[in-house]
Write a structure and sequence with these properties.
Number of helices: 5
CATH architecture: 3-Layer(aba) Sandwich
Number of domains: 1
Shape: globular
Strand content: 15-25%
CATH superfamily: Flavodoxin domain
Helix content: 25-40%
Number of strands: 6
Distance between the termini: 11 Å
CATH topology: Rossmann fold
Length: 156
């Protein structure tokens, strides 16, 4: 299992680390070549423009190589109702094919939004398992819920 994630504020990174502790999977970060602004309003506006224009921001090469794994956890913050565009770029650079894809996201009220539907559209051959969502402000106390989700999916 490989836990692949994009994180801007650190919430999704902490959730990915929790999944790694519980599953023993490897971990890899989606890193845009041009970092997003730290200012909240600036990053929100840039994310909105990227989605409207269907922009695919370049990302750094990933290690370990996702092609070597059968199961990919895919983590992201919910920006404008779905995953950020660096995640779309990851899916184009590293096609999922018929792998098992397990989404997880952080948010502040929008839950998974339409991200699962967007993943189905971008990865039609993948076996998409039930996603997990948690408010970013509650990530640090989410381990019991993460463990229950992973158990329900039969991944631990």
């Amino acid at each position: 299992m490989l836990i692949v994630y994009f994180s801007h504020s650190g919430n999704t990174r902490r959730l990915a680390a929790c999944i790694q502790r519980l599953t023993g999977g490897d971990m890899a970060q989606i890193t845009p070549l041009t970092p997003y602004p730290q200012d909240y309003d600036a990053v929100v506006e840039l994310a909105r423009q990227e989605q409207r224009r269907n922009v695919r921001p370049p990302i750094a090469a990933m290690q370990p190589d996702p092609a070597a794994y059968d199961t990919l956890f895919l983590g992201y913050p919910n920006w404008w109702g779905t995953f950020p565009m660096p995640v779309a770029m990851f899916l184009e650079n590293y096609p999922v094919g018929n792998k098992t894809l397990v989404p997880f996201c952080t948010h502040e009220g929008s839950r998974l939004g339409k991200s699962e539907q967007d993943l189905r559209r971008l990865c039609p051959q993948a076996r998409l398992l039930k996603g997990f969502e948690v408010r970013g402000s509650r990530v640090d106390g989410a381990e019991p819920s993460v463990k229950a989700w992973l158990s329900e999916l039969g991944l631990i």
